[in-house]
Design goal:
There is one protein chain. By secondary structure, this protein is of the alpha+beta class. 33% of the residues lie in helices and 22% in strands. β5 and β6 form a beta hairpin.
Amino acid sequence: MDEEKITAEEVQEDNLPEEPVETEADSEEVNTKTEDTDQEFNEESVSEEVIESDEQAAEKKEKEKRKNIFDMVEIITMSVVVVFILVSFVFRLASVNGRSMYPTLKNGEILLLSNLFYEPKTGDIIVFQQSNVETRLFDYPLVKRVIATEGQTIEFDFENWKVKVDGVELDEDYVNYIKQESMKRLSIKGNTVVVPEGYVFVMGDNRNNSTDSRDSRVSFIRKDEILGKALLRLFPISVFGSVYNN
């Protein structure tokens, strides 16, 4: 009886399925699959990092672009404000009307003026506007040259086109001399003029075609009527530069 039981148990054990034995090839296959999975995961991570990096770079580039545009707008705005302030309070523009300043200046030329801390002196080219609306001869600003300032004495030699200020003859190579003609005296009586305090005496370089302080309708120019001293010719471009270098 016991022998039969033992025999049956042995038979039963013999019939049990054998446990699978893991071979080296199976282990390598599992490792390969694991490595493939890890590689795919790493590739996805790298891809996501690249995409994120590109997005960050694009966002940074866009921010820099907006900043550059803002900076440019700010610079342009500040430039316009500075130019406005300079033109309003430091510099002015004026145009030449007529031929009274020929050959130094010509009709239509645009001048840059400055009146900042300006004190007129002999030889300066100035632009002024007579303030008395009822008596002024011209409704637009005039361009003339300062011959003498307050307190100075002017002596004229109309026949020889010579002018002296406080006894010193002016070197006026800028004057448009006309041969066989005398310099016009207009309203001046005699040959000597004294400039009152607070005024200047002006004449055009084209002496015989200029209405200036020799004419009683213009006479002496008050210093507070001076809009500024001419510094540069701005237009036309072909004559751009100082008005004192001809």
